[in-house]
From TrEMBL:
It is found in: Nucleus, Nucleolus. The keyword Nucleus applies. InterPro entries: Fcf2/DNTTIP2 (IPR039883), Fcf2_C (IPR014810). Residues 165-181 have a biased composition (Basic residues). It comes from Albula glossodonta (roundjaw bonefish). Keywords: Nucleus. This is Fcf2 pre-rRNA processing C-terminal domain-containing protein. GO terms for molecular function: RNA binding. One of its GO terms (biological process) is RNA processing. Residues 158-181 are annotated as: Disordered.
Amino acid sequence: MLITLIAWAKDSIGQSRTEFFKCAHLMKRSIMGPDFEKKEAVPPYKESKQALKLKRKVEKEKTTGAGWFNMKAPELTEELTNDLKVLKMRATMDPKRFYKKNDRDGFPKYFQVGTVVDNPVDFYHSRIPKKQRKRTMVEELLADAEFRSYNKKKYKQVITEKAASGKRHRKKNKLHKKQGN
């Protein structure tokens, strides 16, 4: 069928074989799909190599890559930023537990948040009841009485130290501010 079409096209129009295939290729690309009306602009006929490279780079930066199962960068909400701050300050929360120093200053770009699911085999007293479960780590810490009492005690201790040092403490801070500039 294709051979007869080529022969017919060559005889009737006077095109060569390569010109016909170029035309057929262009006609194949010019088909409009059902979503054509929804598009705001006609797709470009040919994009430059730089534009394609830039587009690939933008797409690549959205995820971590195949090595990390294409983990996407989540949108940082207020709750997420508060939870990340809590994780960064975890060394100050429990006086009896040691955590190593944080390896980065800012928040990570790619991360995922999960929920620990309790084992149904565990007995009731080893699980937290649904009424006591909170949505975020910050809410959970604020509901914890031990944590709140420890923080109040530490806060009072810091305030009394500042008040005891008085003028000397303010001079020290002033000196640090001058050295920083």
